[in-house]
Write a structure and sequence with these properties.
The protein is built from 4 helices and 23 strands. It is mostly beta strands. The protein folds into 3 domains: 7-169, no CATH class; 201-271, Beta Barrel (Lipocalin), CATH 2.40.128; 299-413, Nucleic acid-binding proteins (OB fold (Dihydrolipoamide Acetyltransferase, E2P)), CATH 2.40.50.140. The strands form 3 sheets. Strands 1, 2, 3, 4, 5, 6, 7, 8 and 9 form a 9-stranded mixed β-sheet that branches. Strands 10-11-12-13-14-15-16-17 form an 8-stranded antiparallel barrel. The radius of gyration is 27 Å and the shape is elongated.
Length: 415
């Protein structure tokens, strides 16, 4: 957020919480009623508010609203996560941009839960009562989360200070026309230019850098968000990106502007700069195993190093080449690579470091290479012992498995 809570306010909140704890039980009921009444006098239903920060998302024509939460403890507005799609599945969602004017539909103080909730509506209101949901409105909820017990003795000004980091009250001179009055003329926004989507591409969340989204050239994606892994396919249509999430059987849209994506919760994802040259179409993000700096495209790396667990993650999402010795087509019988995503529709074959012999024991599993089925005809022309050049990137499974495979975009006989 651009605006942060002043240290004096936070210090006061902490101080009052400690010094007032002894009288808290006796003051809770009266304080709750007084605080809610005071807030209602300042924020009556229908109050026109300006949204000051990103991260608020609403639904259109739906009975459920995503909830964004401003937490005093970290001074940030937390946008609804992808998991929020489970509760709003089937609802059309729309981020509400900073600077947008909304109307307050409801305000509640939940003292035991340490929060104050605002339900707001955004849209041109053409009815007499704009304090309730109306046709075409975008409905959203913003919760303000306070330290435990603070609301029992909080002063109105302290709570308003927190609310003021997300909403400001619109003065009457700026308020839009209500009821049947003509609304002010609003200029049409300039549509952003359509930027070509270069694949594969890796995006990092601006709000939570540990969250990463990998888009692959075969229109598959891998997502790490909130400590969870998701996979599926995507469709790009102009500056809109639709993700079809396999684990939840839901869809969500992201808008593209320049090198940034904005998801349905208002969260921004920034394109990670990659090395020059194309990168492998099937490279898939596996947890946080993503190379920080890829070598130049086409660089040859010894295969023993590529598949070594100490180095394999260095080549995730890169475009490297390596020399290998062909063993056989197909994967190791009865071995399933279910800890690694992004292998659907890929044909496996087995290789070794040139000069090495594959083991013959039941637990001797040679390195596996995967290639898209429509490019796999070439592997059936090789025989055991042939030397090959493979091009692509590594895929590394999440811990504790640490399984490693090579996803190839090109396979050819070595000269």
């Amino acid at each position: 957020m651009r605006n942060t809570l002043r240290s004096s306010v936070l210090t006061t909140i902490a101080f009052l919480f400690v010094t007032a704890s002894g009288n808290m039980v006796f003051a809770q009921t009266a304080a709750h009623a007084t605080l809610e009444q005071s807030l209602n006098s300042q924020y009556p239903e229908g109050t026109a508010l300006n949204l000051l920060t990103a991260g608020v998302v609403g639904t259109i024509g739906c009975n459920v609203q995503p909830t964004s939460t401003f937490k005093v403890k970290d001074e940030k507005l937390h946008a609804p996560s992808f998991s929020d799609d489970l509760t709003t599945n089937g609802c059309a969602k729309q981020p509400i941009a900073p600077g947008t004017q909304v109307n307050l539909g409801d305000m509640k103080v939940f003292q035991r839960q340490n929060r104050v909730a605002f339900v707001v509506f955004q849209g041109q209101c053409a009815v007499a009562d704009c304090t309730r949901h109306f046709v075409g409105s975008i409905d959203a909820e913003v919760d303000f989360e306070f330290p435990k017990g603070f609301l029992a003795t909080a002063q109105l000004a302290q709570v308003q200070e927190v609310i003021g980091h997300v909403f400001s009250i619109v003065s009457s001179i700026d308020a839009p026309a209500q009821g049947g009055q003509d609304a002010p003329t609003v200029s049409e926004p300039t549509l952003p230019a359509i930027v070509p989507l270069k694949l594969p591409a890796l995006y990092i969340s601006a709000q939570v850098p540990a969250d990463k989204l990998q888009l692959n050239a075969d229109n598959s994606f891998s997502l790490q968000e909130g400590g969870q892994s998701y996979h599926g396919t995507f469709v790009a249509d102009g500056n809109t990106l639709e993700l079809n999430i396999g684990e939840t059987s839901t869809k969500t849209n992201l808008s593209r502007q320049g090198n940034d994506l904005t998801d349905s919760s208002g969260q921004t994802w920034s394109l990670r700069q990659q090395s020059s040259g194309s990168t492998p179409g099937g490279a898939t993000l596996q947890n946080n195993a993503v190379s920080n700096a890829c070598p130049p495209a086409g660089t040859e790396i010894p295969f023993g190093k590529v598949m070594n667990e100490a180095f394999a993650s260095d080549y995730v999402g890169c475009d490297i080449t390596s020399k290998v010795e062909f063993v056989a087509t197909g994967g190791t019988p009865n071995y399933i690579w279910d800890s690694i995503g992004g292998l659907e529709g890929k044909a496996p074959f087995r290789v070794v470091v040139p000069g090495q012999q594959p083991g013959s024991g039941p637990f001797d599993i040679p390195p596996h290479v995967f290639i898209a089925k429509d490019q796999s005809d070439v592997i059936f022309s090789f025989k055991k012992g042939d030397l090959l050049i493979i091009r692509g990137a590594t895929l590394v499974a999440a811990k504790p498995y640490n399984e490693i495979v090579f996803l190839a975009t090109e396979v050819r006989a070595a000269k």
